[in-house]
């Protein structure tokens, strides 16, 4: 049984967007017959995460939410994973959109059997104020959603973590090119600066040959 | 960041570096603001025109232009 | 301490941001352009991050944005 654990709290504007973006990945996972443990809203707490990681031994873990260089957080910023319980992530593919968690936690988790993809700096994105209640309709946030989801999408296509990492970088560059060529779009400059920031802080630690379909 | 003297970077070297960077910028992004001098925002295009044509504006503000270029371009 | 020239540059660039945009800055929350300008002026954690992000973007022209 192939399990995937996804943590997606939803308690502020940022997590609301990440929550919506993750829905698309969950739909694809279910279509491919993965058993998805969707720890959403208040379920994104430490007890549930640890139970899921220990009992289900998922091949892929996706964290949406806030973080720091040494922590990944869930609902209302409860710490889910830190340097004390990072061992629960061993031998898995971990994708963390939690800000800067790849800087220290990711490095310490990763080894020859474990992959950790994430961001070394704050994950920054633009939103349209007028669409904040319907993130799925926000065209300004769309490129960030696309880039953020690319790693998971590539893994679902059977690619290795290394290939998924390269695909993500490429997706960032595609969107940067798109906006660089867009005439008279006032948002373009702001979008490009954020895309470059995220692209350059996105990193993969550990095993670059791991796949989730193994 | 070391202090930058007026003499540190010659105009020719500055112009050469500027042109190399400028040539590599997509057309739509040449409208980006890259400097503020005396509360006047300057885009890539404006900087190109002022610097290349040795205008009075450039002569009056060479030091500031060089200093900002130091931060941004090299 | 960031130089006044750089702060002015970043603030001017932020002022040209369309008013309907908000920026989500990781664990710090979401900010309108007016709030971002305030943070840059204060040079707090968010302000410094925005300055760094803007300078990184401007410096990226040196080697090409792709």
What fraction, in percent, of the residue positions of chain C are helical?
55-70%
Order of helices and strands of chain A: EHEHEEEEEHEEHHHE
Distance between the termini of chain C: 30 Å
Written as H for each helix and E for each strand, in order along the chain, the element string of chain C is: HEEHH
Q: What fraction of the residues of chain A are assigned to beta strands by DSSP? A: 15-25%
Low-confidence stretches of chain A: none
Q: What report would you give on this structure?
A:
The complex is a heterotrimer of chains A (214), B (74) and C (66). Chain A has helices spanning 13-31, 46-56, 105-109, 142-156, 161-181, 188-201, and strands at 3-8, 35-40, 60-63, 67-68, 71-73, 79-81, 93-96, 115-119, 124-128, 202-206. Chain A is α/β, with parallel strands linked by helices. In chain A, β1 (3-8), α1 (13-31) and β2 (35-40) form a beta-alpha-beta unit. In chain A, α1 (13-31) runs parallel beside α4 (142-156) and α5 (161-181) runs antiparallel to α6 (188-201). The model of chain A has no long low-confidence stretch (mean pLDDT 96). Chain B has 74 residues and is α+β, with helices and mostly antiparallel strands. In chain B, α1 packs antiparallel against α2 (44-52). The two termini of chain B are 12 Å apart. With 66 residues, chain C is mostly helical. Chain C contains three helices and two strands. Chain C has helices at residues 4-15, 33-42, 45-63, and strands at 21-25, 30-31. Chain C has a two-stranded antiparallel sheet with strand order 1-2. In chain C, a hairpin with a 4-residue loop joins β1 and β2. In chain C, α1 packs antiparallel against α2 and α2 crosses α3 (45-63). The longest helix of chain C is centred in the C-terminal third of the chain and has 19 residues, at 45-63. The model of chain C has no long low-confidence stretch (mean pLDDT 93). The chains are: A alpha/beta (214), B alpha+beta (74), C mainly alpha (66). At the A-C interface, α1, β4, β9, α5 and α6 of A face β1 and α3 of C. β9 of chain A pairs antiparallel with β1 (21-25) of chain C.
State the gist of this model.
Helix content of chain B is 53%, strand content 12%. Chain B has 74 residues and is of the alpha+beta class.
């Amino acid at each position: 049984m192939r399990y995937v654990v996804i943590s997606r709290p939803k308690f502020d504007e940022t997590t609301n967007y990440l929550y919506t973006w993750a829905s698309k990945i969950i739909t694809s996972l279910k279509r491919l017959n993965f058993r998805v443990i969707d720890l959403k809203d208040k379920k994104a707490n430490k007890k549930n995460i640890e139970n899921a990681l220990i009992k289900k031994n998922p091949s892929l873990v996706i964290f949406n939410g806030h973080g720091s260089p040494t922590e990944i957080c869930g609902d209302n910023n409860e710490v889910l994973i830190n340097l004390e319980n990072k061992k629960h992530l061993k031998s898995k593919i971990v994708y963390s959109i939690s800000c800067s968690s790849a800087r220290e936690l990711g490095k310490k988790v990763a080894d020859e059997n474990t992959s950790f993809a994430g961001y070394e700096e704050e994950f920054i994105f633009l939103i349209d104020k007028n669409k904040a209640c319907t993130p799925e309709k926000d065209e300004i946030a769309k490129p960030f959603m696309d880039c953020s989801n690319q790693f998971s999408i590539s893994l679902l296509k059977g690619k290795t973590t290394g290939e998924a990492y390269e695909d993500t970088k490429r997706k960032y560059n595609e969107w940067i090119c798109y906006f660089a060529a867009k005439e008279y779009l006032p948002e373009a400059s702001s979008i490009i600066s954020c895309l470059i920031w995220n692209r350059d802080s996105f990193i993969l630690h550990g095993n670059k040959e791991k796949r989730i379909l193994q | 960041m070391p202090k930058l003297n007026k003499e540190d970077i010659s105009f020719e070297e500055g112009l050469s570096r500027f042109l190399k960077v400028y040539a590599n910028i997509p057309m739509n992004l040449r409208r980006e603001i890259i400097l503020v001098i005396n509360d006047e925002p300057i885009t890539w295009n404006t900087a190109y025109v002022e610097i290349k044509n040795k205008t009075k504006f450039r002569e009056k503000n060479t030091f500031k232009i060089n200093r900002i270029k130091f931060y941004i371009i090299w | 301490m960031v130089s006044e020239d750089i702060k002015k540059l970043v603030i001017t660039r932020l002022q040209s941001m369309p008013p309907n945009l908000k920026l989500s800055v990781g664990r710090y929350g979401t900010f309108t352009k007016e709030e971002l300008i305030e943070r840059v002026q204060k040079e707090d954690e968010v302000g410094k991050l925005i300055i760094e992000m803007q300078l990184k973007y401007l410096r990226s022209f040196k080697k090409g944005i792709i």
